[in-house]
From TrEMBL:
Key word ATP-binding present: yes
Species the sequence originates in: Streptosporangium amethystogenes subsp. fukuiense
Record-linked Pfam families: ABC_tran, oligo_HPY
Recorded family membership: Belongs to the ABC transporter superfamily.
Annotated localization: Cell membrane
Single annotated GO MF: ATP binding
SMART domains to which the protein is assigned, alphabetical: AAA
Protein name, UniProt field: ABC transporter ATP-binding protein
């Protein structure tokens, strides 16, 4: 890690209104990303990883956030809404897990790709040229013609490329990818992850990958942060965490991953039972 990280999250807490008062779902999370670094935030559904990631852009209107979220030294929690809108896209890009739900079905994909530039004063002609170039770079064939197509005319993998184009066309320093491969088949998953890896290296762009799939983390991220029940329970280099996990929950997650050549007669461990066993010191990550 550098002395001045691109993103520094300190003691982040997130609460939502409940019937009997605020309910805290993220409990004092610390997180850092250096420029150009790829970090995975992993955990089960409901662990708080997506809320943590969305908090960086203050996307949950009903959430009360405390702590500090510093991007290049600026605390995003202190900024007015207008300034936050400027940072979304230019400072931080976001890729959601469901590309179809992320896209406006009645607007062309070209219009949607160019909006992050147009609203920042770039001419429509220049924005279109840059959008077509980027879409072609992302592997969409005949990008000039397809630029005026609608989301329903694209496959799931192609729609995800469109969403990535929207997220990075303004050249953000940080990209948050929230379960970007969940709805895709294994082959397309690999393509999308390879693409994100190449883009991060080319642009010196930091990537925060949100996922529950430990299998894709090993080939993509440099560091991993494990979350459970709104807490960051373990973090460190991927190789170290996978080889020598310290927390019972991390060991349980790894124990539940299917392995090629494993004993097919034995059921996979569930997270709950595996954590209980791990806390007794009997679970091995191998």
């Amino acid at each position: 890690m550098t002395d001045t990280p691109l993103l520094a999250v300190r003691d982040l807490r997130a609460s939502f209104p409940g019937p009997e008062g605020p309910i805290e779902v993220v409990h004092g999370v610390d997180l850092e990303l250096a420029r150009g670094e790829k970090v995975a935030l992993v955990g089960e559904s409901g662990s708080g990883k997506s809320v943590t990631a969305r908090a960086v852009l203050r996307l949950d209107a009903g959430a009360t956030l405390t702590g500090r979220i510093e991007l290049d030294g600026t605390d995003l929690l202190t900024l007015p809404p207008r300034r936050m809108r400027e940072i979304r896209g230019s400072g931080v890009g976001l890729v959601f897990q469901d590309p179809l739900a992320s896209l406006n079905p009645v607007m062309t994909i070209g219009w949607q790709i160019t909006q992050p530039l147009v609203i920042r004063g770039v001419s429509k002609k220049v924005a279109r040229r840059r959008g077509v170039e980027l879409l072609s770079r992302l592997g969409v064939r005949d990008a000039e013609r397809r630029f005026d197509d609608y989301p329903h005319q694209f496959s799931g993998g192609m729609r995800q490329r469109v969403v990535i184009a929207i997220a990075i066309i303004a050249e953000p320093a940080l990209l948050i990818a929230d379960e970007p491969t969940t709805a895709l088949d294994v082959r397309v998953q690999a393509q999308v992850l390879r693409l994100l890896h190449e883009l991060a290296d080319e642009r010196d762009m930091a990537v925060l990958l949100i996922t529950h799939d430990l299998g894709i983390v090993a080939g993509f991220a440099e560091r991993v942060v494990v979350m459970r029940h709104g807490l960051a329970v373990e973090s460190g280099p991927v190789e170290e965490i996978y080889a020598r996990p310290r927390h019972p929950y991390t060991r349980a997650l790894l124990a539940a991953v299917p392995r090629i050549g494993g004993d097919l007669s034995r059921p996979l461990a569930t997270i709950g039972s595996a954590v209980e066993t791990a806390e007794e010191g009997t679970v091995s990550p191998s």
